[in-house]
Amino acid sequence: MADDQDHEHHFESADAGASLTYPMQCSALRKNGFVLIKGRPCKIVDMSTSKTGKHGHAKVKLVGIDIFNGNKYEDISPSTHNMDVPHVKREEYSLLNIDDGFLNLMDSEGGMRDDIRVPDGEIGQQMTADFDSGKELAVTVLISMGEEAAISFKESSGK
């Protein structure tokens, strides 16, 4: 069994770049959508198109916020070019505990994980405060480009 897993893992890393993103024509991108800027998965917060001269192509200026670290990135691309768009998946977990800066989470099948950090800044502080006050929380984890981060939470409406 161990051999299979090793082989699979190797295959994944060789193929990782291809399956983590898909191409989309720049002109088809939309605000609040996702795009790769400087190799980072970003949410598009602003885009503007400019025409360049008589024979130039329309260029699209993209402003994106890194979905994991909040950094702001900008990129300019001809509208006819393809940009890489990251596959982004959301999963919801129940928050069981906060332990030493990490969230102890349980998925809907009862699977446990404790490798997601408490988010930085206000979200993390609020999450910790709400959890400490005894609220049951559902945490949304964003998964993209092999990275994962808790991006939001809400009070669970007990089942």
From TrEMBL:
Naturally occurring in which organism (per UniProt) = Smittium megazygosporum
Which InterPro entries does the record associate with it? IF5A-like, IF5A-like_N, IF5A_C, NA-bd_OB-fold, Rib_uL2_dom2, Trans_elong_IF5A_hypusine_site, Translation_prot_SH3-like_sf
Ranges of residues in domain Translation initiation factor 5A C-terminal: 87-154
Q: Which UniProt keywords apply?
A: Cytoplasm, Elongation factor, Hypusine, Protein biosynthesis, RNA-binding
Q: Per its UniProt record, what Pfam families does this chain match?
A: eIF-5a, IF5A-like_N
SMART domains associated with the record: eIF-5a (SM01376)
Instruction: Name the family the entry cites.
Output: Belongs to the eIF-5A family.
User: Which GO molecular function annotations are given, in alphabetical order?
Assistant: ribosome binding; RNA binding; translation elongation factor activity
Gene Ontology BP terms:
positive regulation of translational elongation; positive regulation of translational termination; translational frameshifting
Subcellular locations according to the entry = Cytoplasm
Listed name of the protein: Eukaryotic translation initiation factor 5A
